[in-house]
Amino acid sequence: MEINKVYNEDCLKIMQNIPQNSIDLIFADPPFNIGIKYDKYNDNLSYDDYYNWSENWISECYRILKKEGSIYIAIGDEFAAEINIILKRNGFYFRNWIIWYYTFGQNQRKKFSRSHTHILYFTKDKDNFTFNDNNIRVPSARQLIYNDKRANPNGKIPDDVWQISRVCGTFKERLGDHPCQMPEELLDIIIKASSNENDIVLDPFGGTGTTSAVSKKLKRNYITMDISETYYNLIKDRLDGKIDNNLKKSSNNRVVEKKEDFSTLFDNFG
User: Fold this and answer.
1) Which domain, by its residues, includes 41?
2) Amino acid 247: pLDDT
3) Is pTM beyond 0.70 here?
4) Distance CA 205, CA 11 (A)
5) What per-residue string of b and e applies to 211-239 under the rule 16 or more CB within 10 Å gives b?
């Protein structure tokens, strides 16, 4: 299996060809099974089919992950509890149930507007795993407000609620018409925390290639895949620096700049 490569194939077929205990970090943003319109994938499976499919790809993740490796899975409300159970059934150890609060959500008529996604953080070993806390520390209220001498001069480890905007149609970061593009800021935290330079980061659901793009910037190796040829080509162009401006979505000539630093993202949470 080659590293630093994008594969145009079903994730299960690719992962079955990866040697066991060879991947350092996995980030997965699977379809939520809520009827989202992807290029090819049917996002409207029966409950049993979706559960069994999730168990299949998560069990492959366990097999290929190194003993000290970590897995993060982004998932919606409808199946967050089930994914949590599947991870535990496959032998993973729970670390955090992170809430990604993206500040504004889709408008609803008969329920509260949703403005979050769950990110389940598990490790393969209970005690031995990579977590580079000094790479992700942010200024604390003790430092900035109270001038408390007891505060760690390097800042605090971020809380488990992350305030990061979604990648909307007006953002410069926006690529193509994929419905669920992940922001680079979010992957920056995860990859810095749970991997080291030259480690291998795998994303089973490539999408627009955010995981691989951030891995490349942070000097990690990557493996990613997508069943859509359209998304596959988009990821390749992104990694090769060939993204044309006409692929970037804009609306009414309004553009919102992406923040480059996440040091202020957690101010509202103490």
Assistant:
1) 5-269
2) 45
3) yes
4) 7
5) bbbbbbebebbbbbbbbbeebbebbbbbb
